[in-house]
Each structure stands twice: as structure tokens, then as C-alpha cells.
Design goal:
The protein is of the alpha/beta class and about 230 residues long. The chain contains 10 helices and 6 strands, in the order αβαααααβαβαβαββα. It folds into 2 domains: about 150 residues, HAD superfamily/HAD-like (Rossmann fold, 3-Layer(aba) Sandwich); about 70 residues, Orthogonal Bundle (DNA polymerase, domain 1), CATH 1.10.150. The protein binds lactic acid (LAC).
Length: about 230
């Protein structure tokens, strides 16, 4: 835990960590929302990993659209207008309720904050603005600058370069267990935001800490309420 307290910057994953990716389907679909959201997310991540392994990078906007196309086909939903509306909503995601206060407390404590995400720069800027988080973040870092998706080590190295900090001086926070493992493997001080009480990943290098909510992050960083 001491390494986390000594961190000079806190870098967040975006989708599922700060930005609520369940919101578009909840708003636009009824009883099928959860199943569709889960398949959409699963295919989005699979396609990102597969494209990275295949050496066929395309930006996350395209990967997200192709994954949605698959998920709608799997659910036998033929509705181009719905697909358009879901993708538009993905650019306008709300923040999770626990995000704004955690970011404010970290900033008030003098640490820098950033996002490091698969999202393309355009997607990230749009979603962070709609979630009203733009003023709480010092940097938005996109994998587009390295042309490969997480968990490639090049992605995490980008955060060290841009923040000009050694990996262990960066606290990396992700709600994705596999992303937490990827960052920990690169030497970051990692906090896994385990929102749904999932089992530990069976991957090399465990995160330094686990929390159920971003509300627990300031205390982990040694920030105490005045
Ligand atoms: C991201 C995805 C992995 O924001 O959640 O990078």
C-alpha cells in the first residue's frame, strides 16, 4: 500500500471505470439491455485483442461499431437506427456516481489525474465532456498514439512518457481485471476497481490493491477527508 500512497499521478481506465458503459443500452432497450450490453462489451474487447495479435489495428470507434453489429446480429435485432443511437450514446456516456468526488479529492491533494484508454481521442474527448469530467483530468491519453490496444506494454509506457514519471510512481486504476494485470506487469502501482466482486484473474502479476468503489480510492492514496 505504501507504493500507492507515494504515487504522484493517478491514471484511470475510461470505459467501465469512470464512464458508465451500461447506460446506452439501459436507456434504449428494455429487457434485453443487460445481455446485449455484455455481449457488445465482450466482443469489443475480443476484437481489440484479436486485431492487436493480427497486426490489424483500427481505432476503437470502429471496433466498438463492429462489436455492436455482431451483438445486434446475435440477438436478431435488425435496426440500423438503433445501432446509430447506441453508438451516439456511447460518445455521450455519463460518469459513474462515484467518479467526480474521487477525482476532485485527488486533484485537491495535488496529484495529477489522467485517462489511459483504448478509446480514440475523439471518443474520449466527447465522452469526458458529456460526463462533465473534463475539468477533473489533466490528460487524456489514447492508444491511438501507439497503434495497438491494451494490454500491450507500449500502451502503459505511453503514460510514463507523457507524465514523465517512472511506472511505480503512477497509480493505475481499472475496473478490468485484465487491464489491471497488464499495468501491474509493467510496474505500475495498480488498484483494481472490482465493481462486481469478480474472482481474481489467473494472470501473471496481481494488482497491489482491490476496491469495490472509487469512493475508497482517496483513502488508499493516503488522502483523508478534512
Ligand atoms: C479502456 C477500456 C479497456 O477504456 O475500458 O481502455
Amino acid at each position: 500500500m505504501r507504493a500507492i500512497q507515494r504515487c504522484a499521478a493517478v491514471v484511470f481506465d475510461a470505459y467501465g471505470t469512470l464512464l458508465d458503459i451500461g447506460a446506452p443500452t439501459q436507456a434504449l432497450l428494455n429487457e434485453r439491455a443487460d445481455a446485449l450490453a455484455q455481449l457488445w462489451r465482450r466482443k469489443q474487447l475480443e476484437y481489440s485483442w484479436l486485431r492487436s495479435l493480427m497486426g490489424r489495428h483500427a481505432d476503437f470507434e470502429r471496433v466498438t461499431a463492429e462489436a455492436l453489429d455482431y451483438a445486434l446480429a446475435a440477438h436478431a435485432i435488425e435496426d440500423p437506427r438503433l445501432a446509430e443511437r447506441l453508438l451516439a450514446a456511447y460518445r455521450n456516456l455519463p460518469a459513474y456516481a462515484d467518479a467526480p468526488a474521487a477525482l476532485a479529492a485527488i486533484r485537491a491533494n495535488g496529484r495529477r489525474t489522467a485517462i489511459l484508454s483504448n478509446g480514440s481521442p475523439g471518443m474520449l474527448a466527447a465522452a469526458v465532456a458529456s460526463a462533465d469530467l473534463a475539468d477533473s483530468l489533466d490528460m487524456l491519453l489514447s492508444v491511438e498514439d501507439v497503434g495497438v490496444f491494451k494490454p500491450h506494454p507500449k500502451v502503459y509506457a505511453l503514460a510514463s512518457q507523457r507524465l514523465d514519471l517512472a511506472a511505480e510512481k503512477i497509480c493505475f486504476v481499472s475496473a478490468n481485471g485484465w487491464d489491471a494485470a497488464g499495468a501491474a506487469a509493467c510496474g505500475f502501482s495498480v488498484v483494481w476497481l472490482n465493481r462486481r466482486s469478480e474472482p481474481d484473474e489467473r494472470l501473471p502479476v496481481r494488482p497491489a490493491a482491490q476496491i469495490p468503489s472509487l469512493g475508497d480510492l482517496p483513502a488508499l492514496l493516503g488522502i483523508h477527508h478534512e
